[in-house]
Amino acid sequence: MAAPPRSARRADYPAGRSALKTLVVAAFSVGLFSLATLMVTMAPAMDSRSRRRLAHGDAATPGARDRHESAARGARADEAARPAAEAEAADLAAAPRCRAQLFAETELGGDVVRWGADHLTDSAAECCAACAREARCNVFVHCSSAVACGELHRQCWLKQLDDAWPEVDALRGKSSRWTSGVAGERPPPAAPRSAADGPPPEVALVTEAGEVRIRLFADAAPLAAAFIRAVAHAAPSCDGCRFYRAEPVPAGWGSRALPDTWSGGRWGPPYALMQGSFMPSRPDEPSLPLPAKPPAEPSQRARPLIRRGMLAWAGGGGGPDGFIALAEHPEWGHGHTVWGEVVAEDMIVVDTLMARPIRTEDWGSIMASVFVTPLPFRLRALRPAARNGEAGTPPAGGLAGD
């Protein structure tokens, strides 16, 4: 039997194909609708957006189940987070004591209660609320400016500071990055100090340019004060005691025109200090042993903000290497044990010593300014060790002899 002509086959097939296509589409639609209806019925925990996706056929796409389960978990997480968000809002409303005491461009110090490197908040007000939740926190600092803070932006440091208000007065407006807050009200101003209020000096540095008298902070830094007294009595000539580092005060010290840094900014280099060793190599009196090296003081009172004329241990730890500050150092915060102060009128001797020739020396992490020839000194006791109640304490503002 002969096959129908090719033209006849082309004419007959479209009708059959159309009927078959209609049947397949109808069956697929009914099946898909049934499947979607079944899955909607079995997913009561999913939110309304997920159900709408199911009704429109999303369930048939690869990975849909995972997306729906994730949506369900997200809905449950939102419900769980709502009480925490409400609690945070309540904390913000309950923390006016912090918000009322905000100080822009100010970085306050103190013992860290919570590190800001892993504690970020969107505003100083939220940082304040976090401080209000911590029993020990009475000071916070927040890096609020995205431009000035860089990678520090949004860091919220919670701190504890025994007496914050003198520090506010000393540091207010000196930082380009930080906003600080203090809990509580400012106390009434104390009566001004006079030179007669300070204890008499206990020891003197005897140098080629003259004597530099020192008041010891025996109440706040008893370990350091005891060490200096022992050296003065055990080795009057202090063989081996010397000043070797001489960092003058640069012209732009503390200038707001420079970055708020201490690496090519407003806080050096050079770093405004004269540093040396207060440990003799041997005692002049063989019957008196050399004192042990003093450790860092545990008390916060031993770490005030450093001002011109104060003496502190170098490196943020204990002795015997220490320095005389030639300017105020707000950039160091409370990082150094401060154990004494130079009588104000004797700072002219220190300035004279700083005029000696200096050179630059590579210390690895920094390029240090050092004396071309180290400067020896003697440590001389001026009076017997102070009795209880007579010892000097760090002043709240300025030096006792100012």
Please describe what this structure looks like.
There is one protein chain. By secondary structure, this protein is an alpha+beta fold. Among the domains are: 96-182, Hepatocyte Growth Factor; 195-381, Cyclophilin, CATH 2.40.100.10. It has 9 helices and 15 strands. It has a 10-stranded antiparallel sheet with strand order 13-14-8-9-11-10-12-7-6-15. Strands 1-5-3-4-2 form a 5-stranded antiparallel sheet. It is globular.
What's the tally of helices?
9
**Class of secondary structure makeup:** alpha+beta
Overall helicity: 25-40%
- CATH fold annotation of the domain at 195-381: Cyclophilin
**Strand neighbour order, sheet with most strands:** 13-14-8-9-11-10-12-7-6-15
Tell me the strand percentage band: 15-25%
What would you give as the CATH superfamily of the domain at 195-381?
A: Cyclophilin-like
CATH class of the domain at 195-381: Mainly Beta
**Outline:** globular
| Unreliable sequence segments | 1-16, 38-78, 385-391, 395-402
Biggest sheet features: 10 strands, antiparallel
In the CATH classification, which architecture of the domain at 195-381 applies?
Answer: Beta Barrel
Q: What is the count of β-strands?
A: 15
Mean pLDDT: 77
Q: Key terms for this structure?
A:
402 residues, disordered C terminus, 9 helices, ten-stranded antiparallel sheet, five-stranded antiparallel sheet, disordered N terminus, Hepatocyte Growth Factor, Cyclophilin, alpha+beta
Summary of the model, kept short:
Helix content is 30%, strand content 19%.
